[in-house]
Specification:
CATH superfamily: NAD(P)-binding Rossmann-like Domain
Mean pLDDT: 89
Structural class: alpha/beta
Strand content: 15-25%
CATH architecture: 3-Layer(aba) Sandwich
Largest sheet: 7 strands, parallel
Low-confidence stretches: 316-341
Shape: globular
Number of strands: 14
Amino acid sequence: MGRVLVVGGAGYVGGHLTDRLMEQGHKVTVYDLLLYEDVYLKDVDFVYGDILDQDQLLDHVKRADVVVWLAALVGDGACALDEELTVRINVDSVRWLTSVFEGRIIFMSTCSVYGAQEGWLSETSPLNPLSLYARTKLESEYILMSHPNSVVFRLGTLFGLGDRFSRLRLDLVLNTLTVRATLNRRMSVFGGQQYRPLLHVRDVADAVILAMGMDANGIFDLVAENVTIMQIAEAVQEQACDAQIDVTDVPFQDTRNYRVLGEKARHELSFAPKLTMRDGIAEVKQLIEQGRIRDLTASRFSNYLALRPFLREHQSPLGREVHVAHQLAHHRTRRVTSAPT
């Protein structure tokens, strides 16, 4: 049991992870800017803060035994909105962390660093990042490899539901196809032969728990199963009343295509994913059918759509900094820091 700081812990991955850490008896602090949320209601120590506010963050880092770093601009589209800000958040903040913290760091990277390649890939395979998002994650990996006590998880394409509080991301392929099939009885697939290494969002928490209890360091791919986009659509079709699949050959800007083994995590960390894509389809489908989301078109469910108005409107560095200051002041007057679940 120890003091764990989960930076970015109010997000998609952080929700279930925080629950698991508390179940294990750790003293958990969540540090988050609430970019996609108005309140944070989980019964855990919560600090509202920006990772670029290093003076505030430093106090909490110094008190931690383990820092789980989830904070980032995530996704190709979201990162492309403002390259300078993406580098500051995804790379410079990690460089700062390694300069001030000697304890255990657990960092989330992405299998997107593999880009588009044939054959089966592992941690020693060539890298081919195709987007700013993937390049910034790879640069952070290089930074962390000079830190003697760090674990980097290259996550597969996530799916499924996290905890009871965190938003569902609808910019992830399995979740998106499930929602469209459930609501419209049809879904569009571009090409469909591209491979993705899938991983349920709740399985990420188990990997973090394992890494905290072992001495293993370095880079680990986390993946449960490798399937094509078409295979995902067919699995959704099977569970969603035979929804129609519309296949189009229209070029799609996301050219990633890769299959990842994930053997190192299985052997060295005893990581054994518990949830399959069919589990994720079933739980997302049930969520939609029960009407538990009032407006599925809301921008908050997509990283890109949620950030686009803000980042496009304030692209000059000076304008952005002034706007961020006003936004922080506004949020501080209405945030909820902690309340019983």
